[in-house]
């Protein structure tokens, strides 16, 4: 199994050192783990700063690879929180740094954060969802330094609504990213948060598949080692039911494909 969305104490909202997570990953038999710590420039909640020292991060990953590399593959990823007005800053970041894997997520929209609920305060649920996907569409049209889109229906974690009304906009997003050779992730933290589904939900996975999407990673979005690979068998089964035969791993932002059937336990 490969977990492609894992946080460490380089993320402002996580206290778990890489070492502890890697030991757990080896213990439960993961073949590969990709750290994807948070950079969210200009995060609207000023009590938290989602930035960290990238040289220290690089150094720490190398140390972990030297220490554990004979037992598990360790990849250097990142999760960036985009918004239309921040794309230039992320372009600059990507010009200066190399990552194996880049998750392009949207944790804020309309310059307000989803987590505190501020984003939803002045909008109906449909206005909120429309704004979210319009901004994400803009980002995919104007930014290409990423590997996959993260938790594509994160809006529903904070305010339950139907993403089905937004299949048209999401289709537009897929029609941009698929020819670019970019993918999406299936984030299993939705199961932990009581959504009873991963993110995105099955209807969106089906939409992606029907449009020819092939690149898909699976990540637990763990902030603690005990949620590594959470519900991965459920995720593999779900993907197979939709029609996917392969999941994706990345090195130096280049995809390679692993048969799902060989990963199920
Ligand atoms: Zn995220
Ligand atoms: Zn995350």
Automatic annotation (TrEMBL):
Say which species the protein is native to. Answer: Ornithinibacillus xuwenensis
UniProt superkingdom = Bacteria
Read off the Gene3D superfamilies from this record: Metal-dependent hydrolases
The record's annotation in NCBIfam families points to: hisJ_fam
Identify the EC number(s): 3.1.3.15
Designated name of the protein: Histidinol-phosphatase
Alphabetical list of SMART domains matching this protein: POLIIIAc (SM00481)
> What pathway is it annotated to?
Amino-acid biosynthesis; L-histidine biosynthesis; L-histidine from 5-phospho-alpha-D-ribose 1-diphosphate: step 8/9
Family per similarity comment: Belongs to the PHP hydrolase family. HisK subfamily.
Q: Which InterPro entries match?
A: Histidinol_P_phosphatase_HisJ, PHP_dom, Pol/His_phosphatase_N, Pol/histidinol_Pase-like
Q: Identify the Pfam families for this entry.
A: PHP
Could you tell me the keywords of this UniProt record? Amino-acid biosynthesis, Histidine biosynthesis, Hydrolase
Q: Which reaction does it catalyse?
A: L-histidinol phosphate + H2O = L-histidinol + phosphate
- What are the Polymerase/histidinol phosphatase N-terminal domain coordinates in residue numbering? 2-84
């Amino acid at each position: 199994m490969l977990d492609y969305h894992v946080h460490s104490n380089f993320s402002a909202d996580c206290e778990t050192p890489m070492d502890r997570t890697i030991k757990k990953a080896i213990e439960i038999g993961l073949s590969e783990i990709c750290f994807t710590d948070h950079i969210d420039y200009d995060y609207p909640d000023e009590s938290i700063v989602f930035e960290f020292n990238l040289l220290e991060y690089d150094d720490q990953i190398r140390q972990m690879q030297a220490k554990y590399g004979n037992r598990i593959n360790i990849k250097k990823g990142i999760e960036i929180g985009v918004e239309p007005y921040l794309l230039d800053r992320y372009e600059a970041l990507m010009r200066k740094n190399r990552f194996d894997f880049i998750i392009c997520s949207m944790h804020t929209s309309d310059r307000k954060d989803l987590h505190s609920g501020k984003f939803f305060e002045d909008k109906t649920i449909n206005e909120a969802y429309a704004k979210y996907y319009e901004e994400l569409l803009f980002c995919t049209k104007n930014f290409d330094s990423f590997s996959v889109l993260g938790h594509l229906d994160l809006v529903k974690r904070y305010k339950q609504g139907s993403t089905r009304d937004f299949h048209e906009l999401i289709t537009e997003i897929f029609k941009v990213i698929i020819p670019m050779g970019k993918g999406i992730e299936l984030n299993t933290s939705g199961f932990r948060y009581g959504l009873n589904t991963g993110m995105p939900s099955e209807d969106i996975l089906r939409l992606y598949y029907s449009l020819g999407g092939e690149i898909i990673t699976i990540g637990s979005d763990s902030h603690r080692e005990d949620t590594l690979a959470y519900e991965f068998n459920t995720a593999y089964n779900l993907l197979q039911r939709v029609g996917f035969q392969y999941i994706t791993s990345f090195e130096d932002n280049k995809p390679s494909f692993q048969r799902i059937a060989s990963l199920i336990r």
